[in-house]
Amino acid sequence: MKFEFEVRERRRTGFSLEVRESIEADSVGLVGPSGSGKSTLLDSVAGVESGARVILGGVDCSRVPLEKREVGYVTQDALLFPHLSVRENLLYSPRAKDLGDVPQALGVGHLLERMPRNLSGGERRRVALGRAILSRPRVLLLDEPFGGLDETRRREAMSLLDQVRRTYRLPMILVSHLADEVIGLTDWAIRLEEGRVVARGPSVTVLRASETQIDNYVTGTVVGPGRVRVGSTELSVILPDAATGSVRLACYAHDILLATREPEQISARNVLRTRVSSIEGSGAAALVELEEPHLRALLTLRAIESLALKPGAEVFAILKATSIAYLGRP
Amino acid sequence: MNSVTLSLGVGLAATLISFPFALATAWFLERTQARGRGIVQTLVMLPLVLPPVVLGYLLLKLFSPRGILGEALAVLGIPVAFHFLGAVVAAAVVGFPLFVMSISLAMKGVDVRLERVSRSLGRSRWETLWRVTLPLSWPGILAGAAVSFARGLGEFGATIILAGRIPGETETIPLAIYAELDSPGGEGRIAGLIGTSLLVCLASVVVARALDRWYARRLEIDR
Known about the structure:
heterodimer, A: alpha+beta, 6-stranded mixed sheet, 5-stranded antiparallel sheet, globular, B: mainly alpha, 78% helix
């Protein structure tokens, strides 16, 4: 999808926002510290703020009011309608004809008759996401969807969003003050500071030295105690006793080691023979994408050079069982 | 009709008639950026501070058969001045500021982001008002209805000027009390009327509060 927007905002407080971008991507990340203008930019795209030039997928919606813009707008606070049940919330949009498989996909199928007050924070966010998806948006706009979550819940929420992105193939714009959250889930990113774009490019290129928490999410099947089959490979994982059937796993990109020769006598439980499919990065670090299983490893440029890694090269990916997190059922 | 049932009828009719106007005014004040909101706000508050007699006089000018509105309504066969409707109009006008204030306050309490979400999901402003803003404002609307009802019930100055004191037609409780002041042996009847108005006003406030609390519990909004 092609995202084009031009926003010029001047506030009495002295804050000004000037952004003009034309991006061809499935998903776009907006990062920057609070007060950098990313939420204002998202509001402009959504139509909450008027006056911006916004073209989404070739359709000029600069003058289209919020209710006709067909954007799924999800904020950090779930903002469920407190007087409506989960089912009524999900079906609130006139474009939502029936629930389909959305409640199941988001794990809220058993909550349909509940009122929002009886939901946990995580459940509320899921319902809010489902409500946005069911409104058949042309694009999902997510403002700090992982804000205020601890690490485990954040990984759960991110893996869910990753799943949504793959299942429903919805273009999206994801806003976060943490680059890590954005980069794992988007293919293009913009970094904003004080209302100006300071970096743009394939997501990993806007990374900075301290930003390394890029996550990998995979779905697999439990085949034995502590064993999970993912595609054609099998992983050693620390699983809760009750885990059976399909499971979701996560592994940070910086926890994956690469070697060009098969290591021996190593404590890591997973040594996987695979190939490099692409390398993307700039500055000090790069993301090395692997073929099977589909994982991304974060390496320094120096490491990549010394191993002479390039697309197609055979490598051994090394994953400690303890760095693979179990996120529950898909 | 005795003055008690008449008063109840006047108060109820006044509340029902002013509801759509109070709602529209509150929405205009709280949810639009239109110009002239300040002027409207001032005008709405005017009946609260104007001497009721002055208000009654102005209403009489407006609604007398030779007044602008009165003439038009007379053509339609709807007399206002010195009729039941006159008492209703007087009660509605004095209760109006309280009604608007109460609904405004309730609308202020509704998170505008919920309305924004509603619109982003494809509901127009109008649908959003009906589906989100109003359902979440009910407690305030009911409270407003209760106070404006109670306020209208007690109106004296504007009523006596616009509607006169016609027993069974415009003689509401306060007017009846006034009449009884001069009549021999009125003491007992006055006590009864005062007791009744106390009771009715108390009941309306209690009912409004109970509804408010019940609704808050349903939504689990802390109050």
